[in-house]
Amino acid sequence: MSLRNIGIVYRKELMDSLRDRRTLISMVVVPILIMPLLTIGLGVLAVDIAGKAKQQIPEVMILGGADSPQLMAQLTALKDIEIVPSRPDYADEISNKQIRAAVEIPPGFDAAVQSGQPVTVKIDNYQGDLNSGFATDTLRKALRDYRDATVSRRLESRGLPVTLITPFDIKDQNVAPPEKVTGAEIGGLIPYIVILLCMTGAMYPAIDLTAGEKERGTMETILSSPVSRLHLVLGKFLMVLTASLATAALAVTSMGVSFGIGRRMLMSMASGSDSGAMQLTITFKSVLAVFGMVVPLAVLFSAALLAISLHAKSYKEAQSYISPLIPIIIIPAVVSLLPGVELNAHLALIPVLNTSLVSKEIITGTYHWKLIVLIFASSCAYAAIALGIAVKLFQREDVLFRT
Amino acid sequence: MIETHQLGKRFFDKKRGEIRAVDGVSFRCEPGRIYGLLGANGAGKTTTLRMLATILEPTEGSATVAGFDVATQAEQVRRNVGFLSTATALYGRLTAEEIVRYFGRLHGMDDATISKREDAIFARLEMNEFRDRRCDKLSTGMKQKVSIARTLIHDPSVMIFDEPTLGLDVMAARTIVGFIRECRDQGKTVVFSTHVMSEVEKLCDTIGIIDKGRLLVEGSLEELRSRYRQTDLEEIFVQVVEP
Fold first, then answer.
1. Cα A363 to Cα A282: distance, rounded to the nearest angstrom
2. A367 touches chain B (CB under 8 A)
């Protein structure tokens, strides 16, 4: 084994690839841009949309209520909604988003409440629509306040304390550290993106260094030199691995910077609100650990992509071989995002899914060391097999000179 | 020196079954001589030369290049061979100098020796004007010169040319023909494949006519003319391959 020759091939491939626009875009531009877009961009957009929706005063119809002046007085006094005249096609208008909600007050509501008869008020809304949700919340709060006031009056009139019906209060309190809250909310998304970028970062150099060389006619040139095929494939592999890891490193760095900036921006934009975005905290240690877990996966991707691309005669053919791989990589990564899918010894042996799941746990600050060792070892084994196949294929004339 | 003995190469094709691309080819080329392999497309010229350059491994027979066996001493063979064909393209994103230096390093040369040799070759081939230019920005003639420099950097004793003028314009082809002649004059062993009769007439000391993987006839141009009672090499070639 000549490290000198591997180094010569590696340096040449690195220089060559850094002059290739496609490789540069996939290796540098995409990871740097995608994280700020996902964090700052989407965060700003979400806060902006929510803010605008809150600023818009939703139009609401009141159906009935002519004989219930007390309830009507409560509803018409609301500032966060605009009462519009009632029309019979209110359901269609809600569906068409012309109005956001409607309150159906049954006949004789006030009288029924006075006499202690059971009575129901309906709120018609558009489930899933943000503005309809705001209108519904406003109406529900107003009706709840009115009901509580009625209960209090009744208790007072009988000389009974309010605590009779509310003997105790219930309060939620989060005790999980901020990074665990973040992990639970977006923990799966981060390794998913890093894994995907790790693959796309390796894709173009792998094609360029194999099928691209065949297409351009430089494969025969290099095979006529004294460098052995083992040294040649190892030099090329190291270049593809560099691209893959550089993409992942840039994505992780960009992720850290984006979360730092994004947190401050979102806090200033949504000050005073209790947005979940305020909980964004990812430690340097967890970022480093995620990167460490991704390394054997990058080796696996690099070797596998190199072996697959080598079979192709041209750049285009290699792309058509590799395209079906993308869903194969995405599916396990998506499975890790599903609720209830938790890391265990069996899942720790499934490539991609294992790294995705363990990275999700690392982001939440949880370290299951036995599983981490198992995942790292199994990923290294898969990577070694893939590299072995790539080396074998480089010895085969029918692969190198396929016509 | 190049010597082949019953050299053969079989491929297996899923549709066509076993294919004998080269079948029992034996020839010898001494230093300071040019051996021309003349044959139609698919005759087995490229496969023969690829085996001599150790890019392909023979399935039958044997061959030695510069005293080394192509099957068992492939790396030593490649250290002593300069291989040039229309299929040996250049790295478009590297400069002429970067390519030549890359191949020099792969041949185990140190940077000082590479610089010295590179300067001499670049001056001889008048390449200094474009030595820092990327190869994808060069003209066909300039690219040919870079390819020649690439094959010469390690000063090989054996040169193998596989249809080196295919697809080139007149001027670029003349550069190559001149270079092949120069290699012979320097005492190098030269094997050259082509289907262009005029090039064979101009260059070759010995001509081997190859068809369907078999070397059918061998001799100097004069010997072939007298044996087939023809002065036109094209007519001789047709008589040999279509008796």
1. 7
2. no
Nearest to A217 among B87, B98, B107 (CB): B87
Q: How far apart, in whole angstroms, are the C-alpha atoms of residue B19 and residue A363?
A: 58
User: DSSP 3-state assignment of B219?
Assistant: strand
* Closest chain B residue by Cα to residue A10: B102
Evaluated on CA atoms B111, B113, B114, B118, the torsion sign reads positive
Inter-chain touch A225–B88, beta carbons under 8 Å: no
B160 contacts B81 by C-beta, under 8 angstroms = yes
Q: Which residues contact A275 (CB under 8 A, 6 or more apart)?
A: A47, A266
| Whole-number Å distance between alpha carbons of A291 and A358 | 11
> B100 with B149: CB under 8 angstroms?
yes
pTM for this predicted structure? 0.79
- Write the CB contacts of B39 (distance below 8 Å, at least 6 apart in sequence): B45, B193, B195, B209, B210, B211, B241
List the pLDDT tens digit at each of the 243 positions of chain B.
999 999 999 988 888 888 899 999 999 999 999 999 999 988 999 999 999 999 999 999 999 999 999 999 999 999 999 999 877 789 999 999 999 999 999 999 999 999 999 999 999 888 999 999 999 999 888 898 899 999 999 999 999 999 888 877 888 888 888 889 999 999 999 999 988 888 899 899 999 999 999 999 999 999 999 999 988 999 999 999 887
Q: Which residues of B touch A220 (CB under 8 A)?
A: 50, 55, 85, 87-89
Interior angle at CA A155, CA A153 and CA A157, nearest 5: 65
Residue pair A199/A329 in contact (Cβ under 8 Å)? The answer is yes
Report ipTM (2 d.p.).
0.91
The answer to whether A367 and A391 have CB atoms below 8 angstroms apart is no
Write down all domains in chain A, each with its CATH number in brackets: 3-42+177-400 (no CATH), 55-164 (3.40.1710.10)
- A203, A315, A316, A389, B98 from A212: Cα distances, Å: 12, 5, 9, 20, 19
Q: How far apart are CA A35 and CA A344, in angstroms?
A: 29
3-state secondary structure of B86: coil
- The two structure tokens encoding residue A310: 């080598």
Cβ-based contacts under 8 A for chains A and B: 60
For A18, A211, A213, A300, B145, the CA distances from A304, given in Å and listed in that order, are 21, 14, 17, 6, 37
